[in-house]
Write a structure and sequence with these properties.
By secondary structure, this protein is mostly helical. Helices cover 52% and strands 10% of the residues.
Length: 143
């Protein structure tokens, strides 16, 4: 995935405050982290993996929009659902609107099918582990 950073206006200081305000309606990484509940470190990681592409100020600061906020939250939601970030990167360009609805292209189908297979495998392994632990608990309680 190619990341293109656009240069936007520098933040300015309001005369009555030391808080930085941006004339373009964007936010810095700390504000995005606070609003999304995603750590700054994870937001930087999302950027390094190509699933989040904030604009940059002339000074190189990340500038996030409301759309970036929605995308970061969607990335987290998909990742927490078990999708790897590589798969999320494949799915993002096929998003319809702001929700997890995708164009029914072959690449999306294949990616989702692979992720579902991987989750099914993990579930099977967890069920086997649970069965083993249940047997061990049973043996301890009946000893």
């Amino acid at each position: 995935m190619v990341t293109i950073h656009r240069v936007i206006d520098e933040p300015i200081l309001r005369p009555d405050s030391t808080v930085k305000v941006n004339t373009c309606g964007t936010m810095h990484i700390g504000e995005l982290a606070k609003r999304s509940g995603i750590s700054e470190r994870m937001l930087r990681y999302y950027e390094s993996r190509g699933v989040l592409s904030p604009r940059r100020s002339r000074a190189g600061y990340r500038q996030y929009s409301e759309a970036d906020l929605r995308q970061a939250m969607l990335v987290r939601q998909l990742n927490e659902a078990g999708l790897k970030l590589d798969s999320v990167a494949v799915l993002l360009p096929c998003l319809v609107d702001d929700g997890p609805r995708f164009d029914p292209c072959d690449r999306v189908r294949a990616t989702l099918a692979n992720e579902l297979t991987a989750l099914d495998r993990k579930l099977d392994e967890l069920q086997q582990s649970r069965a083993l632990l249940a047997r061990l608990v049973d043996q301890v309680e009946n000893a």
